[in-house]
Amino acid sequence: MKKGIEKAEILIESLPYIKEFYNKTMVIKYGGHAMIDDDLKRDFALDIILMKYIGINPVVVHGGGPQINELLKKLNIRSNYIQGIRITDRETMNVVEMVLVGKVNKEIVGLINYHGGKAVGLSGRDGDLIKAKKLTLLKNQARDMPPEIIDLGRVGEVTQVNPEILVTLDTQGFIPVIAPVGVGEDGRAYNINADLVAGAVASHLNAAKLILLTDVEGVLDRDNRLIASMTSKKADQLIESETITGGMIPKIRCCQEALAGEYSNNPDNRVAGVTKAHIIDGRIKHAILLEMFTRQGIGTEILSS
Fold this sequence. Notes:
Layout: H1 2-21, E1 25-30, H2 38-53, E2 57-62, H3 65-74, E3 81-82, E4 85-86, H4 90-114, E5 119-123, E6 130-134, E7 137-139, E8 148-150, E9 156-161, H5 164-171, E10 175-179, E11 181-183, E12 189-191, H6 194-204, E13 209-214, E14 229-231, H7 232-240, H8 248-260, E15 276-281, H9 287-293, E16 300-303
Parallel strand pairs: 1-2, 1-13, 2-10, 5-10, 13-15, 14-16
Antiparallel strand pairs: 3-4, 6-9, 7-8, 11-12, 15-16
């Protein structure tokens, strides 16, 4: 009986959050260990299905770097990186699209459907969902010398999201699962960072939340303590003081852009932005539910102000 009462109390604790988020859109970037461990994959699918059944509209954007690396290795195609970005030539792009759209995306869709949900897989090519342009990377040279332009091949950045297909799927009760492949004006596919795609989709849908699943606890202070909540301005200060470093910086920048509704520095493409962004530990069972429906949460939330 005691355990039953405890479960009832958990449900009651979540009630205000269920009411607050009813009929709201949540964009979840799915990646890291949560995509590899079988138990965590099942838990993720169940979390997404539960959200849909209680009236929340989840949209999933996934990565797939390890799976891409695995196939490239089998095909004896060498991966080269500059500033942590994979150089994507024509041959590599074919593998990227094959893995992200043809394999990883369908596995996630199949998992959600197997556990009782209704998921549909998409890439940026579908309905011109994600418009992209070639990403320009500049490398500083000696003083008085112009920066060197680095050719990354078919690596892109988001210029526009056309959410009509996502709205249509939502009204029909489907859960969109998006592979981070965009389409350029020339009709060619571009490989885009999944965090950036999730942020852009969240902004264009005016989502209530953008949630990034990672393999870390969240944002930590200098004493390695979790920062439960901070503003975008505070995040800038922590980056400047080098409290936030390394791979966490692009995730913070992604969240800030999603909050501000700014993409590709294009003033004509400004959108409403998201209400809150969250960086959470996807290695924890039911991490999404714990962050959304409990008072304390488990990760770091970032607010615009």
